[in-house]
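Sat 14:20. Reprocessing the chain from the morning session after the first attempt stalled halfway. Input below, unchanged.
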Amino acid sequence: MVAIEPNGNFCSDCAVRGAAVCSSLDAADLREFEHLGRRVHFGSGETVFSEEDITTSFYNVIEGVMRLYKLLPDGRRQIVGFALPGDFLGMNLSGRHNFSADAIGAVTVCQFAKAPFNRFIEDRPQLLRRINELAIRELSQARDHMVLLGRRSADEKVATFLLGWRERLVALKGLSDKVPLPMSRQDIADYLGLTIETVSRTFTKLERQGVIQIIHGGISLLDPARVEAMAAA
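Finished this time. Tokens:
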């Protein structure tokens, strides 16, 4: 069930402020900025926004993981990415969302109405630069995903996904060989352009080869160098 908190002093206790869109603001601007937003909580599986809906808000992920996806004309789902805390979603040129987003587990976002947000950034070039940085990062991730969907083996695709996901988590939580995977095997399959059976077989194969160990809620990297070599193939 979606729950909305009233406007308040959110920025002072924000765990991802250093990675969020507002990281470039000074204390005075930050006090004004936090009154533009509201914290919204989504339960597992709830939709945050839908493809082709008119964009009325922007979203900064604070807690949890979101799946971002498009529905193909034949009804299949293509996952285009997974959003983590610090990611900023909703900005586009068309004025409509170009993918859908829903919650994997509990998710909290800071939601900003589009019009007042746009007015706020007009005379704050540092915030515009930060938004551009996030947009460039998103474009780079999209290009990497296009390569990933290309002519690579299932082993290479899964290894690249695990390595990339681990690197994103390191930026948030620090280095660890344990890699939580909150998304389902079907989600991973829909991201990599594989079947769920192929993904499950590949995980089992990598575990049998001593590359990973499947643990509750994720995997443990037993041979990171081997995964890196497979991803670089």
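The chain has two domains: 3-144, 154-232.
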